[in-house]
């Protein structure tokens, strides 16, 4: 017997089988743990993605002025409970959710726009579950809120499937700030042809056409939240009880080369007043050289035009208001020639507004408002045409100081070349943008 055992010990033919048998539990255990680890990571990613999406859904609801609701009934949730409804669409396992608005602790505890979502799920793991007394709990949490997205000086308010911002031809734009459109089109903002657009960020509620026409380093932000109308609370004055500034019309403003300087001594109007021009379908047609003192100039059912290359309009701390006392027929602007030297007031009701078109103006998506000043033109302040298209066209080459453009649709075409800079201390300035973002 002892000899047999010694012989068996020296025999190598069965060693591999013995070693394999001894190592089998380790191999099976390793495979089982690897499978469990992959499954755990998958479940973790699924609920983390669901928490991220639900938190952002809650913030989008807040931005739109809607209630966030609760997470108490995910299976029966509707749009009235956006967080729970989002979880209903994105989670296909039994979870225990907790929704907190605002986030209870940390840097966002006092943020009214912050939404925190905590999720947990108890899942049995196929291998390690055989050795555990209870299934482990997998947790995930996410906090979202509204954060700054950049500075904008061009806003397109259209919120349909129509393109909101377009740049074509050989346009060369250097805005010194960003552009945003509320268009829901997949081509909400486009640049084509040989145009070059230097503006960042470019944002849209819809999609943005990616192209080399956007300048180097341009940040594109598609599918962002809509921009608010920055002048929604500003209303036009009632065009009554104010001096008619057509009374000082000597005829010079209708003769090329003529000059009317109403800032000079003996002028019939004084700086800081409110002045009206009423023509009911007519036009404040600048054909000479007009110099106006600061003030608010109300054009009642009257358009504003300057098409003579030898004409000029100078007015500092001024706002031109295109409105209608009857509620219809507000005029347009057509500044396609000559020299513009306009700046908006730094204080008061119309702070930062150079040209204001009443929101009761009829809708227009064509070339209803055109600007094409010459290379010596200066514009500082906002041009506001919320119900119509605004077009920068031709060989403008203007010097624009803190120029803002708020229009239904914005179009840059022809050979326009705009460079936008902001002087220190100006009452005009870019608009702050916002976007929804995960912050924790």
Q: Can you walk through the features of this model?
A:
- This protein is of the alpha/beta class and 440 residues long.
- It folds into two domains: 25-135, no CATH class; 149-438, no CATH class.
- The chain has helices at residues 2-10, 15-63, 82-90; strands at residues 98-100, 115-122, 137-156, 165-167, 172-174, 178-181, 189-191, 196-198, 202-204, 220-221, 243-244, 259-261, 273-278, 283-285, 289-292, 295-300, 303-306, 312-315, 318-323, 333-335, 339-343, 353-357, 370-371, 378-392, 399-412, 417-421, 431-438.
- It has a 27-stranded mixed β-sheet that branches.
- Helix 2 runs antiparallel to helix 3 (82-90).
- Residues 250-256 have low confidence and may be disordered.
The number of distinct β-strands equals: 27
Tell me the fraction of residues in β-strands, as a range. 25-35%
Largest sheet: 27 strands, mixed
Figure out the total of helices: 3
Counting helices, strands and paired strands, the structural category is alpha/beta
User: What's the average pLDDT?
Assistant: 81
Order of helices and strands: HHHEEEEEEEEEEEEEEEEEEEEEEEEEEE
